[in-house]
Amino acid sequence: MKRIKPKKFLTLTLLMALVSMLFSIQVSAADSQQTLEPGALTTAPPVTESLLPFAVNSSFKYIYYTDLGISNPSSLKVRLNATISAYEIVNSIGANVSLERYNGSIWVAVSGTGSSLSSVSTDYYSGNVEYTVTAGYYYRGRGVLWAKKGTTLEEVTYSTGSVLVTQ
Questions:
Q1: Could you give the CA distance from residue 43 to residue 145 in angstroms, rounded to a whole number?
Q2: What is the rounded average pLDDT of the residues 90-116?
Q3: Whole-model pTM?
C-alpha cells in the first residue's frame, strides 16, 4: 500500500472540502428560490407560529377569550373579525384593528385601514370590518383586543395568518 505524503493529503482534503462547500451553496440557493403562487406579485410571507385564540389567562381579571381572524369574502375584499369575551359585564370592550400588506420582504401597514370596533356595558363583543385591497398581495390583520372596567384596562395584541388576494 502506497503512503500519501502529508502535503498531498492536506491539499486533497482542502480540495474536497471546497468542492463540497460549492455544492452545498448551490443547493441552498436553489432551495431558497421560492415560486410565486398563481396570481401573486410577491413570494409568500414566512410562515410564523400559528396563533390560537387566546383563552383563559389567570393574570387577567376581565378578559376571558379573544380572537382575531382574516378572510377574503369576495373579489378584492379582506375582512377582519374580532371577538372578545369577558368574565363579567365591563364598561367597554372591543378591538383596534388594521391591515398589513406583505411587499416580498416585510409587512407594511396599509394606509387608512385603522378601525375601532367596540361596545359598552356588556361582557361580549364580536364585530368585523371590510377593506378593499389590491390583487396580487398577501394581507394580514393586526389588532389590540381590549376590555376596560373602571380604571383597569386589559389588552391582547394579535397578528392573524395571511391571505392572498388574487382577484
A1: 30
A2: 94
A3: 0.74
